[in-house]
């Protein structure tokens, strides 16, 4: 267990260490402001969609960043990331993008392979939960 201004992380020695840059558990104190986003897809405001998972993931995280900023938050406040990709071989590229955006205290994270999204060209979707500690 470690702690940072109000956040506590949990990685018990009785549980296998995380596979990457995330924590098994993260706790925020009572009274923290909570923000939950919808899943963001790799589509730009002009409706263009990159052909690769890296480009799409960057758009997802940029969109999440805009939502966080509008809520007076940042990636430092993200406590949970859920990522969904359509191809197992895209794990490493997705995680490289995710790791560029996460804050100093790594959030909890789930990554799933799914059969697809609303349109065939979408390769990744990302949603987050953030908590601002006052």
Structural class: alpha+beta
Using only C-alpha atoms, the radius of gyration works out to 15 Å
Q: Got a strand count?
A: 8
Described by strand count, sense and barrel closure, the largest sheet is: 5 strands, mixed
Helix content bin: 10-25%
Distance from N terminus to C terminus (CA atoms, Å) equals: 22 Å
The helix tally amounts to 2
Order of helices and strands: EEEEEHEHEE
Low-confidence stretches: none
Mean pLDDT: 94
Please tell me what the overall shape is.
globular
Work out the strand percent.
25-35%
Give structural notes.
- The chain is an alpha+beta fold and 134 residues long.
- It has two helices and eight strands; from the N terminus they run βββββαβαββ.
- The strands form two sheets. Strands 4, 5, 6, 7 and 8 form a five-stranded mixed beta sheet that branches. A three-stranded antiparallel beta sheet has the order 1-2-3, with no helix packed on it.
- The longest helix has 18 residues.
- It starts with a strand and ends with a strand.
Question: Would you spell out the secondary-structure blueprint of this structure?
Answer:
Elements lengths: L1 E3 L2 E4 L14 E3 L5 E4 L3 E2 L11 H18 L7 E8 L5 H11 L6 E6 L10 E9 L2
Parallel strand pairs: 6-7
Antiparallel strand pairs: 1-2, 2-3, 4-8, 5-8, 6-8
